[in-house]
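Example record

One chain of 131 residues, shown exactly as stored in the release files.
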Amino acid sequence: MDKLSIDDLDLKNKRVLIRVDFNVPMDKGKVTDDTRIRASLPTIRKVLEQGGKAILISHLGRPEGKIKEELRLNPVAERLGKLLKRRVKKLDDCIGEEVKKIVSQSREDEVILLENLRFHKEEEANDPEFA
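Predicted C-alpha cells for this chain:
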C-alpha cells in the first residue's frame, strides 16, 4: 500500500494537527534563526489553500515540565505570522477544555499555534495519554 501524502487528502473544513519543529534559537525574546519555521510553510500553506484549519504543535527548549516565560512560543507565532502574511492565533496552553473550545470555534483557514508542549512533563516522558 502506498503512503498517503498531504496532496492525497481532502482538507476542506478539516482541523489538521501538524507537529512542527519550532525549537529555534532565540535571544532576548526574538527568533534569531527562522530556518525551521520557514521549513513548515509549504505544509501550512497547503492546508490553508485547501480550506483547512492548521493547528500547530511544537516544543521549545527544555523547560522540564514547568512554564518558563522565556520559552513561550509567542515570538515564534509573531515570526510565523510575518512569514505567512496573516495572523497566527497563539494559545496559552496545548491541552484542556479551553483549548478545545477555541479550536472548535475558530474559522477554517485560521492558523492556531498551541503553547510549548514541554511545559507539560508528560511530553518528555512520552506519556501515551498526553499524546
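Notes: The chain has one domain: 6-124.
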